[in-house]
Amino acid sequence: MAEDIEAKIRRLRELGKATSAEPEAPPTPTPGPSPKARPPRRVRRLSNIRERERRKRIIIGASILVIIILIASFAAYSWYSNKKADELTKAKQSKLNELNAYFKGPIMNTSYGAAKYNELKREIVTASSVDQVRAIDIKSAYQQVYQKYQQELEEKRKQEELRILNQAKEKKKEEIELAFQPLLSQPLPDEVRSHALQVKESLIDQVESANSVADVNGTDPTPYLLQLWREYYDYKVDSISGDYVVLEFNRAKRIYTKEQAKAVIGSIMNYTKLMGYRVDEVKFVKMALLLTRDRVVGGFLEPGAKVMIFAQNLTGKRYLQIADFGYVDTVLLPADAGIINLNEQQGSSSSSSSSSSSSSSSSSQNSANAGDTTVSTGGSSSSSSSSSQSYTDSSSASYYYSVDLGEIMKAISSGKIQGSEEALKQLKNYGDNLLALEKTLQLQNVPNGVPFLVIVEVPSVYVPDVLTHLNTVYIGEIVEEKT
């Protein structure tokens, strides 16, 4: 349509030029008057006048028409030009909107992204036609820039992952070194130390060759350390002489056979807990404890009995096991545990007559009193003959004493008591017989408050705890399981 209008405008212009170029019939020149005589007046024809008027009107009309055509053409051209300019402006604005829609966000923070944006914007602004604007391929340019941006991001991501991976590797290697340090600082045998170093280097190589942080974090030295610590503790158990060892954990000590100790060590699944154990040699020492009867199983313990020792915690009023293994060496009943009363009487007589008849008799009596119980022994004998002669002779003796056991023992040991052999015989095993009598009669004779001197053999590791709780010690006999 625009081309048709332009063609019409060109035709109108050509028509105007042709009209303006047509020569107007000049009027017939009249010769000027001669200075001498006036030329005769020429009479115009009416038809010529009319012809000239007609041509004049035609020229005026044509001129007006040309002017109208020119005005219309200018108006049409202006309208067309404005329309073209408006289309170009809209096309540019649309292309700029497309440009801004693509080129935005982090991609504009890059030098190449900003440069490409400015280049495209300059092409859009300087375009002289809609076709030039439409020919600008923003999407393709953005894809090129975006691909370069993604490659750059991928490279940065790889570098960051590599940095994090290397950082994780260094951290894991430090953790492995620190985890193995407590073990390697122990007096390990050559075999265990060599094994530990080999395992540590293997774990570090595994970390170094890992390709991801997950692989690095998946390298766990815990099971290897658990096995190595078990090997070390088994070595310590085997290196101790004797059949028993002491395992101490959290200040609690217990005695095990070597096989039992290895079983306990093998049952622990956390090597950090296993590190808290201590293995000691069992060395027995004798200790003398002065305990009241109620704290020494009634005093009925016999030498060789296997016992455990307990104590009361004075702060919490709780009872603690401070020795789980020991033996009784001696249990002594003190001399002031009772008073013994001894009474001894002896007598003899003889007689004879001249009728040759004679008779003789003898009697003896001994008595002993222990507490409220009196034990007496006595005897008599007689003989006679029919003789005419007679003779009489008699003698008697009596002894009585009431002293405590300590004084009797002092008197016997110093030889200051008559009949010391008999007294010693009766005092021998007095304490054992007294306790045995209690068991037999099921009657208590010695009060609970009577102290007993107990000599025990306990491992040396228990001695500090026993001494710490010396005034609150209780002894219990280990009873073998009945079948």
From TrEMBL:
<feature type="compositionally biased region" description="Low complexity">
    <location>
        <begin position="348"/>
        <end position="364"/>
    </location>
</feature>
<keyword id="KW-0812">Transmembrane</keyword>
<dbReference type="Pfam" id="PF04415">
    <property type="entry name" value="DUF515"/>
</dbReference>
<dbReference type="InterPro" id="IPR007509">
    <property type="entry name" value="DUF515"/>
</dbReference>
<feature type="coiled-coil region">
    <location>
        <begin position="139"/>
        <end position="179"/>
    </location>
</feature>
<feature type="transmembrane region" description="Helical">
    <location>
        <begin position="58"/>
        <end position="80"/>
    </location>
</feature>
<protein>
    <recommendedName>
        <fullName>DUF515 domain-containing protein</fullName>
    </recommendedName>
</protein>
<keyword id="KW-0472">Membrane</keyword>
<keyword id="KW-0175">Coiled coil</keyword>
<feature type="region of interest" description="Disordered">
    <location>
        <begin position="15"/>
        <end position="43"/>
    </location>
</feature>
<feature type="compositionally biased region" description="Pro residues">
    <location>
        <begin position="24"/>
        <end position="37"/>
    </location>
</feature>
<keyword id="KW-1133">Transmembrane helix</keyword>
<feature type="region of interest" description="Disordered">
    <location>
        <begin position="344"/>
        <end position="393"/>
    </location>
</feature>
<feature type="compositionally biased region" description="Low complexity">
    <location>
        <begin position="373"/>
        <end position="393"/>
    </location>
</feature>
